[in-house]
Amino acid sequence: MLRQIEPIIVLEQLGSTLFDTALQMVVRDRCANATDPGHSSEDAQQKAMTDFYMINNLIIQLTPIFPALFLARLSDRGRRKAPIVSPLTGYLLSRLILLLVVVLKLPLQVMFAAGTLLGLSGGFTAYWPGVMTLASLGSTAADRSKVLMRVEFMYGLAGVVGSLASGHLFHLYSSSLGHGTILLIISTLLHLLCLLHSIFLLQVKGVSDGELEENRHLLLRASTNSVEAPVEINRVNVALLFVAAILYDFAVGGAIEVLGAFVMKAPLSWNATLVGYGNAAGCVIFLTSYIGVIGFRRCCSDTSLILIGMVSFAVGIYFMSFVTTTLTFYLARALTLFALIPMTTIRSLLSQQVPASSCGMTLTFLQLALKFASLAYIPAFTKIYQGTLDWFPGFVFTLASIFTVLGMIPISIIGCRSPQRRQYEKI
């Protein structure tokens, strides 16, 4: 087990959840004294926090595109560890930089350099496909879906555990270093162990060119739920799926963009412990979404699965617009338990609309489209949130709910077209 990918998944996710809570609290503390003419001190703090997250998230979203493609190419040529080791190096450096920011009282803007280093290393864009590739190649065709599901389950479970502990660890401090230092030291050590494990202990199965080709076909069949890809591209369905994916990603990404700042302001005014619990609630969605897929797939089509996930997010995020207490926050989160189902199922359904030779390129184009969509929704939702702080801070969540409903329209059209298409094919 120590030579498999699972320990890396657990160590990395534990370290990342600790880092996320630490970053959230450091940003809040550094922006506490922000001023903005014509606005209250709390609104000025919110504006400073969301401006930081806007720039930082844009850097993290866009810089990994070309490094991730390069690392994927290296992986396909046999260097399977490259998409693992390189991003883990970036993770370690970014965590170390935040630790230095806290200890040495460096400007918060130094974290933009950390985000750049993380992006240039490939970031999550390279890391997660690398993880899934190694997990797939290390399993048999019969066990592949079970192995991939276990990977996702462990990722979510590690996120829950790390998030629950992060808030309590943040309050541990020495008189000379202050709050958050011990939390960041533990996060950095976890990432160091993770990197060392990937270099010295991780075992990569050596495969021949013929086996690689066979694995690619097996992975394709697994991702399409054993449905053979068509000979020609179904352009209408592909276009509808692209529109639905972009609209849904626009809604989810935009809402999550401001959620971290939203819970810091009155009336919630969360501390580090509650921030950790809130992040844990977000990680629970990984578990419930995949359990939902297992349960619903027996009686629902792919389009129905997507609609269930979208309805779950739309209702939950709309309810978030009116959250004023911690209890109602968790109720809103509980309504979004299946919010991760749509994007996974859209990718699976998309691969069924194109020939096998075009599947990889189509999914790559979708990922690039989502990356460039972040150029719009990150600044858009940030500025809308800043502009509505005085009269309706939750307006961005209502807006996200509207975009989700709009994303349901293309999926409904596909669902209506499918029976007609099957009838046509029988004729």
Note the topology.
Layout: H1 6-30, H2 41-62, H3 65-76, H4 82-103, H5 110-120, H6 123-137, H7 144-170, H8 181-201, H9 209-223, H10 235-262, H11 272-296, H12 302-320, H13 326-335, H14 341-351, H15 356-387, H16 395-426
Helix pairs in contact: 1-4, 1-7, 1-8, 1-11, 2-5, 2-10, 2-15, 3-6, 4-5, 4-6, 4-8, 6-7, 7-11, 10-14, 10-15, 10-16, 12-13, 12-14, 12-16
Report on the structure:
The protein is an all-alpha fold and 427 residues long. It contains 16 helices and no strands. The protein has helices at 6-30, 41-62, 65-76, 82-103, 110-120, 123-137, 144-170, 181-201, 209-223, 235-262, 272-296, 302-320, 326-335, 341-351, 356-387, 395-426. Helix 1 (6-30) packs parallel to helix 4, helix 2 runs antiparallel to helix 15 and helix 4 (82-103) packs antiparallel against helix 5. The longest helix has 32 residues, at 356-387. The protein is globular. It starts with 5 loop residues before the first helix and ends with a helix. Mean pLDDT is 86; it is low at 211-227 and 420-427.
Envelope shape: globular
Q: Main sheet? A: none
Computed structural class: mainly alpha
String of helices and strands: HHHHHHHHHHHHHHHH
- Quote the average pLDDT: 86
Helical fraction: over 70%
Number of extended strands: 0
Rounded to the nearest angstrom, the radius of gyration is 22 Å
The number of helical segments is: 16
Provide the low-confidence segments as ranges.
Answer: 211-227, 420-427
Tell me the fraction of residues in β-strands, as a range.
under 5%
Question: How many angstroms separate the termini?
Answer: 53 Å
